[in-house]
Write a structure and sequence with these properties.
358 residues, alpha+beta, FomD barrel-like fold, ten-stranded mixed beta sheet, 10 helices, 30% helix
Length: 358
């Protein structure tokens, strides 16, 4: 079986997962040696077939290795995670590879150093939760461990402190409540300006303006954002004219598979709704983040409702960017959206699909 060297914030969970899948761990860190009771055997000094390390943005990992080993790893990830993204240009029918680019140019673009094939793996919200559950079989693990570690900085450091308390036998619910209270001030609140980090399946990242938070129910994860446009253009998908003074109301629920944006003219006339289908939404200290899954639902003022670009989403699955099981999740979500759309409610900006009113 293939030999794997792993480093970074996902190392404990990935070590457990890959051991269970028959991979051999080589050159383990001191922490991994202790956690898995690895002995100081000569076999651990062997060169790896696969090298796994964190991406610079900590939203996933880079992997380099042979084509066969990468194909197997990609297969394991697709079968384990519901929303994992494996990026690049297809090199074979199974593995996703791409040309070498400097990391600092774009942390989401796959690498190809010295002709060695590589993978760029992204772990969105559900994948991080799955990794948490795997890690929990090895060590006491805070709920949201990998998400908080991806935040970096002080939040990541506080995770380690909280988990030391768990290891010492402190009550899990009390530790988690203390942790949440400690970091709460680091997150957006009503009145905050945040970014919408709209990540494409191929890895390119777009920042959809800098909206203001106008409502936020922390306990339920419901949030409303507002943006005002200064330039003319066209609203993608809707094919409706955008004019200076128009504003957008975006309603979302953290962890949901869609992002709902309604567009209004400066005078309050409803122009349409664009419902983006995406991986579960994550909230970071200065932004919300998700991977756009290409397919969308559009609603027009005359009551028309349409699903848009399902073929693009299905093509990405066929190319190996996404696991096959994500298709049924997305189709179920789209059917639910279409069945419950009310054009009267869409036109009323005081109503939120997640809240009774605002």
């Amino acid at each position: 079986m293939y030999r794997v060297k792993i480093r970074g914030i996902y190392s404990t969970a990935l070590t457990r997962l890959l051991l269970d899948e028959g991979f051999r761990i080589v050159q383990p860190s001191a922490v991994i040696r202790e956690r898995f009771n690895f002995q100081n055997d000569a076999e651990f000094l062997e060169p790896p077939d696969l090298n796994i390390r964190d991406r610079m943005d900590r939203q996933g990992v880079y992997v380099t290795g042979s084509l066969d080993s990468l194909n197997l790893l990609a297969s394991v990830f697709r079968s384990t995670f519901d929303d994992v993204v494996i990026r690049g240009t297809p090199f074979t029918s199974q593995v996703i590879l791409g040309p070498y680019q400097e990391e600092h140019a774009n942390p989401n673009v796959p690498l190809r150093k010295g002709g060695e094939p590589s993978l760029n793996i992204e772990f969105p919200g559900l994948s991080k939760k799955k990794l948490d559950s795997i890690r929990r079989t090895v060590r006491p693990t805070l709920k949201g461990h990998h998400y908080y570690k991806a935040c970096g900085g002080r939040i990541a450091a506080l995770v380690e402190m909280a988990e030391k308390m768990l290891e010492e036998g402190c009550i899990e619910e009390e530790v988690e409540e203390l942790f949440r209270e400690t970091i709460r001030h680091m997150y957006p609140h009503v009145g905050s300006i945040i970014e919408i980090e709209h990540v494409k399946i191929d890895g390119y990242c777009f920042h959809l303006g800098i909206p203001r938070v106008v409502a936020f129910e922390e306990e339920n994860g419901y949030m409303r954002l507002r943006r005002t446009f200064k330039r003319s253009g066209i609203y993608d998908g809707l094919k409706v004219k955008k004019e200076p003074g128009d504003y957008a109301i975006t309603d979302l629920k953290l962890g949901d598979w869609s992002l709902r944006t309604r567009y209004f003219s400066e005078s309050g006339e409803y122009k349409g709704t664009y419902i983006n289908i995406n991986t579960p939404i994550e909230l970071y200290p200065r932004k919300i983040r998700y991977v756009d899954l290409e397919v969308d639902v559009c609603v027009w003022p005359d009551g028309r409702i349409a699903e848009v670009d399902m073929d693009k989403f299905q093509e990405k699955i066929q190319m190996g960017y996404l696991p096959e099981k994500i298709e049924s999740i997305v189709k179920e979500r789209i059917n639910s959206i279409i069945n419950f759309v009310s054009i009267d409610l869409e036109k009323d900006e005081t109503v939120c699909p997640y809240m009774k009113s605002l």
